[in-house]
Amino acid sequence: MKKLLSLLLTCALSLSLAACGGGQSASPAPQESGADGDAPVELVVFAAASLEATLTEIAERYQEVAPNVSISFTFDSSGTLRDQILEGAVCDLFLSAGQAQMDALDAADTTGTNTADNDLVYSDTRVDFVENKVVLAVPDDNPAGIQSFSDLSTDKLSLLCLGNEDVPVGSYSLEILDTLGIDIAQLEADGKVTYASNVSEVAHQVKEGAVDCGIIYATDAFTYELTVVDEAEEGMCSQVIYPAAVMKSGTPEAKDAAQAFLDYLHTDPEAVAILEGVGFTVL
Asked: Per UniProt, which keywords does this protein have (predicted)?
C-alpha cells in the first residue's frame, strides 16, 4: 500500500512539473554565437626586421588571449614594407623602425615626408611604440680590434657593414658617421663598406665574421649574441623611435583585431617584459 501511494505521488509530481514547463525541455537556453570577439580573424602585420624575434614570441602567447585571431607576419626593412603597402599590399598593422616610413603613408604627416598625400594610416591609432639604441658590433674575438665608432676612420677597418640608406638603421648609421666627421664617400672609394637590405642582414654579416664590424640596433646585438663595443650617444643620431598604427590598407573586419593586438603589445606585462628583455624601451 505504501509503495502504491509513493508511486502515485511521484507521477503527480512529474505531471505538475511538465505543466509548469509548458512542455519545454529543461536543457539550458542556447548561447549566442557569431559574436565579433569569437569570429575567426586573419590579421596581417608588417613589422621591422628588428622586431621579428620578440613579436613572434609575443604572438604565441597572444593565442591564449585571442584564440580566434590568426596572425600573419611579414618582417623586412621598414622602407621595403612601406613600398609594399604603397603598391597595394594588404596590411592591417604596421610597426616601423623609423618615423619617416610611417609618415610617408600618413595623411596627418606634418614633416613633409608624405609628398604624394597618401592616406593609408588611421592616424588616431598611431603611437610611438618602442625605443631602440644604435650600437657598433663586432664578431667573436674582434679580430680587427675595433673598439669605438671613431676607429671606423682608421687603418683598423677593412670592411664595415651598414644598412642601405632607405633602411632606418642605415640612416642612423650615416648620421653617426657624419657627426664624427667620417666621410662615407671615402670609405666607399676605399672599398671599406658593404651594404645590407635590412638590419638582420647586417647582424648576420657580423655574426659570420664576413666583416670587421656593423652598425645595428642593441636588440639585434642581443638576439644574435654579438659583442657591442660602442653605443651611439645622445646627439650622434636621431632618437630611434618605432611608430605603430592600424592601417587603412587592411581589411575592415581586421581593424578592431589590429587595434587590440597593438594595445596588447605595449600594455600587457608579459609582452612588455619580452620587449624590454632584449633591450627595447616600451613607450
From this structure: Metal-binding, Molybdenum, Signal
Q: Is 78 annotated as a binding residue?
A: yes
Each residue's pLDDT tens digit, 71-124: 999 999 999 999 999 999 999 999 999 999 999 999 999 999 999 999 999 999
In CATH, the architecture of 41-131+240-282 is 3-Layer(aba) Sandwich (3.40)
Task: For residue 217, say whether it is annotated as part of any ligand binding site.
Answer: yes
Residue with cell 608579459: 270
* Domain ranges within the chain, ordered by starting residue: 41-131+240-282, 134-231
Q: What is the pTM of this model?
A: 0.81
pLDDT tens, residue by residue, 116-170: 999 999 999 999 999 999 999 999 999 999 999 999 999 999 999 999 988 999 9
- Write down the pLDDT at residue 9: 39
